[in-house]
Amino acid sequence: MSGEVLNAQDGNGTVNRVIRMGTRKSQLARIQTDYVAEKLKTLYPDVHLEIVAMSTIGDKILDTALSKIGEKSLFTKELENALERNEVDLVVHSLKDLPTTLPNGFTIGAVLQRESPHDAVVLHPKNSGLTLDTLPDGSVIGTSSLRRAAQLKKRFPHLEFKDIRGNLNTRLKKLDEKEDYAAIILAAAGLKRMGWEARVSQVLGPEDCMYAVGQGALAVEVRARDCDILEMVSTLHHSETVLRCIAERAFLRRLEGGCSVPVAVNTEVKDSVLSLTGAVYSLDGADSLKEAMEISVDPGNKLESAADIQHVGVTAHNVPQCAQVAAEKLGVDLADLLLSKGAMEILTTARKLNDAR
Ligand code: DPM
Fold this sequence. Notes:
The chain has eleven helices and 14 strands. It is of the alpha/beta class. Strand 7, helix 5 (146-155) and strand 8 (160-162) form a beta-alpha-beta unit. Helix 9 (239-254) runs parallel beside helix 10.
């Protein structure tokens, strides 16, 4: 694999490898990739990094709600093609944009420490000082996330919800320069990375809006067989984030959910106990199922495990296998509990209604 990439010997006989990092062209994607590049540069000063930016389907189709495009891996396919053709060696993604089942031959080689996973309210400047509670009746909130709309419709029945698409810059512009939206909902993590924290008027806690699977965490996708790169990026793993995200992704995978279903989670690790709250919603939030479970992720808690296996697409040799097995089991068990209470009916109806919109 490494034979495909430029290798150069320097005077000391150490290998100066050129690592090509693939990224989407959006400003957020560039910022995220630069962030990972900085981390790698610090850890491996001899490695030469090159950044290759490309457009994806998700970037090209800007007028349709994400959940309506009906194409899996909206933001990832072109980048994976480049990875497969050895045009790049790794790709930095927002973990929440990565499907729970990756195409054969790829793996998530690093999950970095999570930023705030919560959603945030960004107000039209004229509404400064207001909250979702105090916005006038009929105020229009912009979001194309079925998950956000479902939870917030139920919690704030006086508000109305409308799709809004485009990258973060486009959305903020649509909010500020028109009168179409009273506020928009965005991930706090993305806003922070863009340096727009000052625009956050309200961060939504789990009682208002639980977050999406993987939200706030960065992931590095690599070729599963590229051991050199896999080992290199594995030093970026953040154990607690890895375990939380394995549980969340296992939950979503068991529910057969993609990026377009109203599924939300909340996770926490405390005293070696991983807890997961998971919920599914009808499109208007009127129907919902929510349950919570926890499991010990103490490395002393020996659960049977096969060595060297991926957990919902994640390869993390340096995180205790038994803890990863436990995290995956937690996600699957919680999904099974919700399924036994009728979660599939709620999701199937939501999917049908969304397709018919
Ligand atoms: C996914 C969703 C959205 C993105 C659906 C959801 C939001 C779509 C929308 C799966 N991916 O959250 O329920 O608001 O119309 C996305 C963002 C980030 C990663 C932007 C955002 C940045 C935060 C992060 C789009 N993907 O959610 O505000 O790294 O988690």
